[in-house]
Amino acid sequence: MLSLIASFAPPQASSFAGEVDALTLWLVGMCTFFTVLIAAMVVYFSVRYRRRHPDEVGSRFDHSTWLEVVWTSIPLLIVLVTFVWGAKVYFRLYRPPAGAAVYYVTGKQWMWKTQHPTGQREINELHLPVGEPVKLTLTSEDVIHSFFVPAFRAKVDVVPGRYTTMWFTPTKPGRYHLFCAEYCGTEHSRMVGWVTVMERVDYERWLATVPVAVTPAEQGGKLFTDLGCQSCHAEGNKNGPSLRNLFGSKVKLASGGTAVADEDYLHESILDPERKVVAGWRSEMPSFRGRVDEQGILNLISYIKGLTGVESPAKTESAEEQSAAAGSEPR
Ligand code: CUA
Q: What distance in angstroms lies between residue 145's CA and the mean position of ligand 1's atoms?
């Protein structure tokens, strides 16, 4: 039975594949069992209790408390099991482990642009090392797309103007289909690609073949200068709030509330700075909408993350360079 199902399903190539398949099998099994049971009983009772004479009258039946308790408690138990099981898988799916390497994905009509923690870029391709947790941070340049790798049982919507994340650990080397699973225009069906999972040594070898000038954080640092951000946000400057240790911290807002300085907050503050003004400052920052694309914003965020030492995407020698350049203590 299981192997029959497996022959129809895509290969199981991530840490979640088994769990998701088991849950799906449970749901399909339950639905099939009750559908067949009910259909068989409808047919059986229709024949067994059919009317044999025109003057026949059915017997009176009021209700049975015992029967009602049974047919209420069994479905309740089944949905509770499904809920608790589903919630457990869901929570695991949405909580990336702290050590996961961060890859960036940008959807654009009609292609997938990906970027490695070490700065390599690809289009409609993503190479990953096997057995290591991967966190994807995804956004869109235009409309809603959906990043779907069936072999990983991983799918997440890619939404313009905000970041979504997903994580998984690829468990089997191979080449797996990547699809866009949200209708996004004429060429939606051709917005496909490949995820290639390789052994660590092969991955390193592959990385070395892709020319990369600088890491995302370094590109962000350059952009930071080019856009003139440092004229207000440089250390010791009195024109704008400091960005040192900003990422992940709680920010007091001029409007009275607080906000957590996560990726979405930084994204919003670059494009719509007047929405969440930091307490003690006036809204003087211009919007950078149209002046920097999603890739650029991701790079800027990488740079700002590097000013804290939290989840610095480049954990190689350049991480030290960044923190040295930024003058911050890595944690
Ligand atoms: Cu992108 Cu469909």
A: 4
Domain-terminating residue out of 79, 94, 109: 94
Q: Which of 184, 205, 198, 195 is nearest to 149 (CA)?
A: 195
CA of 191 to the centre of ligand 1 (A): 6
> What is the per-residue pLDDT across 121-135, written as a single tens digit (0 to 9) for each?
889 999 999 999 999
Q: How far is the CA of 192 from the centre of ligand 1 (A)?
A: 9
Residues 202 and 272 in one domain: no
> Do residue 109 and residue 78 come from a single domain?
no
Whether the per-residue pLDDT at 241 is higher than 70: the answer is: yes
Is the CB–ligand 1 distance for residue 191 below 6 Å? Answer: yes
The per-residue pLDDT for 218 is 80
Beta-carbon contacts of 100 under 8 Å, excluding residues fewer than 6 positions away, are 133, 134, 135, 167
Task: Indicate which CATH number applies to the domain containing 257.
Answer: 1.10.760.10
In short, whether 181's Cβ falls inside 6 Å of ligand 1 is no
- The reply to whether 60 falls in a domain is no
- At position 106, the amino acid (one-letter code) is T
Asked whether residue 53 is assigned to any structural domain, the reply reads no
Is residue 97 classed exposed, middle or buried when 0-12, 13-18 and 19+ CB atoms within 10 A define those classes?
Answer: exposed
Looking at the predicted structure, is the pLDDT value of residue 323 above 60? no
Confidence of residue 319 (pLDDT cuts 50, 70, 90): very low
226 & 302 share domain: yes
When the pLDDT of each residue in the chain is averaged and rounded to a whole number, the result is 83
Ligand 1 within 6 A of CB of 182? yes
